[in-house]
Amino acid sequence: GGSARLGGKMAMEDDTGGSRKRGLFLDLSQEPFAKAARQTNAEYLAAFQAFDFDRSGFIDIAELSNALQAVQHSVEATSPGASNRLFPRPFQVTTCCWLCARFGDGARLSATQFCELLDYVRNLKDIFNEIDVDTSGSISCAELHRAFQLSGVNVAENVVAQVGRSYDADSSGTLEFDEFVQMRLEWDCYITAWDRATSGNTVIQPERLLQVLEEVKRSMEPVGQSLQRQADVPVFMSQGLFFTSMFKVHRPFQAQTCEWLIIRFGEGNLFLTFSQYSAMLVFMKEMKSAFCKLDANASGSLNLDELYNCFAGLGMQLPPQLVAQISQSFDRDNSGEIEFDEFVQMAVEWHEMMQQQSRFTEQASGRISAADLQELFGCVRVLYRVRDGAVQTMRAFSPHACRWLVAMFGSPMPGEAFAQGLAWNEFLTVIQYLKGAYAKYLTCDISRHGAVTTQDLWVALAACGIHMTQEVVDNIRRCYDTDSSGTFEFDEFIQLLVECQLYDQVFDARVAQPSTLTPLNRLNPLLGPALASAGSANGLVTLDKSAFFSMAFAVPRNL
């Protein structure tokens, strides 16, 4: 009965070990004796033979739906009643592709395979009826969510809604039985891959996740090819699937992609539970569909224009320069384009960014303050990285560091000597800046303790484009290392880096054009054209860049 599969006593928490094939995902395989009996079922064999027109011993995808209906008519003739209806409506071609891929060779079925398929569908109908609590003949989002929960998969209702929508071909808002069959067949692949990789454990590590993703691609290959061969199947039906030949060039997933996915869904842990794994798969299907819509020629990569259109489609009209910077930061193989694997990494980051956009639209000015920025940094996980088997976290940014970032990247409003807030696009530029700076910061953390030592500061600044003499760097170190700890946390490093970069920009701008108004001197230039031409005769002292920096960092910043 229902309690044996989905009832309250059988509900399982996500931290239980063993196979995930339970409840909604119950293993439908049978004992050898029962399986042999099914394979000699007279009704099944009669339906198969009726549509094996050429007596080849096989039926193809086009004939499968009719053969299934023949079985239905036979059942109705011998046992009238609505409760006996296996197939309330003919199966879609898409469903038949799934079934042929699961039980046949992707294109046709033998008599034995047809009988095995029907046995699977009969058992699946029992599970469907248990989930269909209101006996409407279809499964609502609420019913599907309940089934996930009772099966020990505690994902959010909106995630389950995404699962349902991806199979709801007729956009009815519910899953019909044949749509449910597609869902179950796909998730069979996901669960089998999980079980093999975890061997009964409750969580999965990055290296095992890579194995799982590659196994999913291999197991989905027959259905992917089958769907692509069918002229009657809409293209979008295969767009969310992962299979080996999904693009013209076959590329394996990168280990770094798995780390990004675990950071995104692991809630601070370097592993995933099955529920988190399920949410991750839904996200990846959504991203695969989005990628395919942009990659019109199925090349498996996006050029800069396609990437720009991607952000525009999300309602993010980013400056082309920023899009180019984003592309470059994810183009690991320096191909000049973003492959799907790299797109997944980018999507993980920017999906999180999109969730923060409401903070800006809620403000009348469309800007957030330095204090808001400090709070927001605590919610953004894209800056974190995996290092030595752990997720690297950072302490909260100081108010001083946030004010410097706002001053550097923000645009002053009328009456402001320097920016007091950041707009949405400016915030995105800050994030991109911090990502680049953090990557360089980690490479300079020679001791791998999560902080740059004062001895490594010269290397760290040089990596970020600030080239100074050791004497100047020593001044900067003494200026900022006010607690004599001998190390700089990332927020301290950012604060001194931003200050150095601003001074560097100001100095270079003045050298190139003495009358130029600069970011730190907008209202009252120290060197106007008259003073610039007056020279030392009027008592002016000329400083080179090193002397200028030594003077600027002569006083500790805590005074």
Beta-strand percentage range: 5-15%
Q: Which structural class fits the helix and strand makeup?
A: mainly alpha
Overall helicity: 55-70%
Low-confidence stretches are 1-5, 7-13, 519-532
**N-to-C terminal Cα separation, in Å?**
75 Å
The biggest beta sheet reads:
2 strands, antiparallel
Number of helical elements? 25
Strand order of the largest sheet: 1-2
Number of strands: 12
Rg measurement, Å: 31 Å
List the quaternary state of the chains.
single chain
Based on Cα principal axes, name the global outline: elongated
Arithmetic mean of pLDDT:
80
Short description:
The chain has helices at residues 2-5, 32-38, 42-51, 61-78, 93-103, 111-131, 141-150, 157-167, 177-198, 206-229, 236-239, 255-265, 274-294, 304-313, 320-330, 340-354, 358-361, 370-377, 399-409, 424-443, 457-463, 470-480, 490-512, 529-534, 545-552, and strands spanning 58-60, 108-110, 203-204, 272-273, 301-302, 338-339, 367-368, 385-387, 390-392, 422-423, 452-453, 487-488. The chain is mainly alpha-helical and 559 residues long.
Explain what the structure shows.
There is one protein chain. Strand 8 and strand 9 form a beta hairpin. The N and C termini lie far apart (75 Å). It is elongated, with a radius of gyration of 31 Å. The chain is 55% helix and 5% strand. The protein is built from 25 helices and 12 strands. It has a two-stranded antiparallel ribbon. Strands 3-4 form a two-stranded antiparallel sheet. The chain is mainly alpha-helical and 559 residues long. Residues 1-5, 7-13 and 519-532 have low confidence and may be disordered. Helix 14 (304-313) packs across helix 15, helix 19 (399-409) packs parallel to helix 23 and helix 22 packs parallel to helix 25 (545-552).
